[in-house]
Amino acid sequence: MLAQAVVVASVMCVCEIICAPVIISMVSGAFALVPWAAVACLLAVVFMAVLGFAFLWLADNIAHNFPARFAPVSYGIVGMASFGIWGGLIYPTFINSVLEPAGLPSISGGNVWAIVFNCAIIGLVGFLLAAIFAPRLSRRVPACVAMGVVVLALSALGAFFLWGFYSTLG
């Protein structure tokens, strides 16, 4: 399950980096690209650390009720629902907590739904790929450790930028 968590966190970080320009356009360029991408990676890694293992366990238990070839689909559905809800609640909260004290308009309802959809797709892809690639990755310990270290470094960078956001506003 640790290899699955590393795969999910890695895929989510890559997807967050790819989707960062979309979020930045939703907030009218209030964030720079690299800081927001790093903060988004931090939020994805926090999801995996706080709730991800429970949802991986849930997906694994659901997958046992289906033929083996449908297991990735059940993982993807659980990831889609769980990260979609997490993203819909957490991401707009963090964005608005920076925008409102800076005197900028908060994120609109339509953009919140776009964030929910974005996070749901990221969760789907992350959990689906974890179900497919984690068994092979678990046999390659150095690669798994390297991926974990890179993800933790990106999340530490995100924590640094998040601290910078709040210290500037404070």
Topology:
Layout: H1 2-26, H2 33-63, H3 71-99, H4 109-137, H5 141-169
**Class from secondary-structure proportions:** mainly alpha
Tell the overall outline.
Answer: globular
What does the main sheet amount to? none
Low-pLDDT segments: none
Integer-rounded radius of gyration? 16 Å
User: Helical element count?
Assistant: 5
The portion of residues forming beta strands comes to under 5%
Give the H and E element order.
HHHHH
N→C terminal distance: 40 Å
The count of domains is 1
The whole-number mean of residue pLDDT values reads: 92
Number of DSSP strand runs: 0
Fraction of residues in helices?
over 70%
Architecture overview:
It contains five helices and no strands. It is mainly alpha-helical and 170 residues long. It has one domain. Helix 3 packs across helix 4.
TL;DR of this structure?
84% of the residues lie in helices and 0% in strands. With 170 residues, it is an all-alpha fold. The protein has one domain.
Please supply descriptive tags for the structure shown above:
170 residues, mainly alpha, globular
